[in-house]
Specification:
alpha+beta; single chain; zinc ion binding; 514 residues; 5 domains
Length: 514
Amino acid sequence: MMTVARYTKTTGDQLGSLFWADGQMMADYQLFGDVLAFDATYRSNKYKKPLVVFSGSNHHKQTAIFGFALLQDEEVRTYRWMLLNMLDVMESKKPSVVVTDGDKAMRAAIAVKEPEFRKVFKKAVYANFDVAEFEEYWRTAVKSLGLMENSWVKSTYELRQSWATAYLRGTFCTSYKTTSRCEGINAFVKGFLKSTNSLLELVQSLDRVVKDYRNNELTAQFYSSYYTPVLTTGLDKIELFAAKLYTRAVFKEVRKQIKGVGSLLFLGKDSISTTSVYKFSSVGNRSRVRKVLYDPSEPKIECDCMMWNSEGIPCCHIFCVMKYEGLGEIPPGLILRRWCKDAKEWTASSTCDSLGHTSRLLRYGALCSSMSVVAKLASDDAADFFLARDALTSLARRLQLRRGNTVAQDERVREQDVVRDPAVTRTKGAPKRGREMGSSTNAVPGGKRRCCTSCGLPSHTKRTCMSQRETSQAGYPEGTSATIGDPSSGEPSGNRSGRSCSEVCLMIWVIFDM
């Protein structure tokens, strides 16, 4: 499956950092990579390397995985390598918005010192302020809490354009405003991983994670395709058009805006050349006036609330203008393809005329999406299964003949770089643990060391005490044994180092408990 991987090696030929993504991830990124989120999770592998998950939102507003990275450390240069290689693999397509975590240590410090500030900060992030209202609210709140000179508050305020809704209005972010979805992904991923996973086990487990997310998308696509909603807004033509156009999840958001038309008050209409200027206020807030520009010659509708720019769906003010103008369909300029049911369908205009790698990825992703639907429909019935299997087998043979059977794998063996297992890394974000990989094999639960009751030395018991064996030349009593091995050789067959059975069992317990 067109998997691409990039990696670095250390001086000892050990694996340093690793980034990988399969073909469908790359195709999804081309369609939905306008907003990219990533965060690191820990204790996901025995090398203690931070695992980074790249994700975004698909056309069902579900999580879409774009790739994974296993980092050598958490230095700036390492993250820079990761991001540059991610962009290179994704055909240099840059996201318009990147969502990642802030300084957790500083965030925790301010939360402890000023619990009330958390409420203030939450409102500052989410409230529907304009810039002037935000500035006044922030100044008043900080002054009342006595945090004017707090260093964290000052530095956070300086970055307000990257987190305050007042400044982000008009920036498309697919409802991403915090890393809460990233934290949800990390929690879900950890359910598939163990801290003892090797590199191969890690990749296989993450593949199951991706399949689970893709199954959710497939189910949502199935319901969107065969779902007919009950019309409830009174604007039946507009609502029915939206229901046929958008995925089920997005349509629910659009329908809320259509319903919101009933709560608007029409304040007047002005004309400037061919453009009409509508003015509205809401029943709940009559002081705030929204202006909507409508130019029937384009057609073009713009609202100063900028919801379409931020969310990619028309606001209630735009739908109200559509009602007054007698429009039964959403103008093409207000339809964002990424929210449509056919967002992943193949179109000749976008992929057929180009031979580039990006077009190949889009065709690959469209075929994967179609095949998933076929698999879901055909697996419900035995007759449908045989029909789909035979048709796909026949199609595969025809494609092989068209391409001269070039789909067969190349038998030439390329010289491969030798890369050893990565070294265990100490990550600053990983939680402290009571037992490290290099702990003594003599350790037991509770921190106590097992000692022999005969000689008083650790790492063995009275039954396996060497001093007892030396003094007992006649052999062991029936039913006991010092080691498991070949009696004639005097060495244990499974443990040539001379460790006793109790030591070996204890060592296995320690390793699997890491």
